Amino acid sequence: MPETIFSKIIRKEIPAKIVYEDDLSLAFHDLNAQAPIHVLVIPKRQIDSLEHASEEDAKLLGHLQIVLQKVARILNVHESGYRVVMNCGRDGGQSVGHLHYHLLGGRTLVWPPG
Ligand code: DGP
Question: Does the predicted model carry a pTM greater than 0.90?
Fold first, then answer.
């Protein structure tokens, strides 16, 4: 599938406020923040969406969740709490075709989401 703006962020061709990086993943602040803390955690290898993930990606997806935990600690929302969201497909509200987790925190979040 065609690459997205996130590939350019991974290659540092366009700037992003990076919170954490390792060989497999990148975490950076969302341009369109919906909460005081709103960070995206993405795999460096493009998977278009959760629907495009396979059993071979299970370890990578697990790694991304541990990265979310690290990001929460780096940004000091690990005790107050936070929400992890992954939008998938049109009805899920996914706008960028490169799988990503949203980490939202820094305020009390309502449920259910819109
Ligand atoms: P989603 O709607 O779940 O696909 O989320 C995509 C998010 O990506 C959305 O919250 C806005 C964010 N975003 C889109 N383009 C950029 C960009 O160039 N830089 C950053 N930091 N975030 C972006």
Answer: yes
Q: 33: domain CATH number? A: 3.30.428.10
Q: Which domain holds residue 10?
A: 5-105
pLDDT digits (tens, 9 = 90+) for 20-52: 999 999 999 999 999 999 999 999 999 999 999
Question: Can you list the alpha helix ranges (DSSP code H) found in the chain?
Answer: 5-10, 58-74, 89-92
Number of structural domains, the chain?
1
Ligand 1 contact via 28 beta carbon (within 6 Å): yes
How far apart CA 53 and CA 45 sit, in angstroms, is 11
Catalytically active residues, by annotation: 100
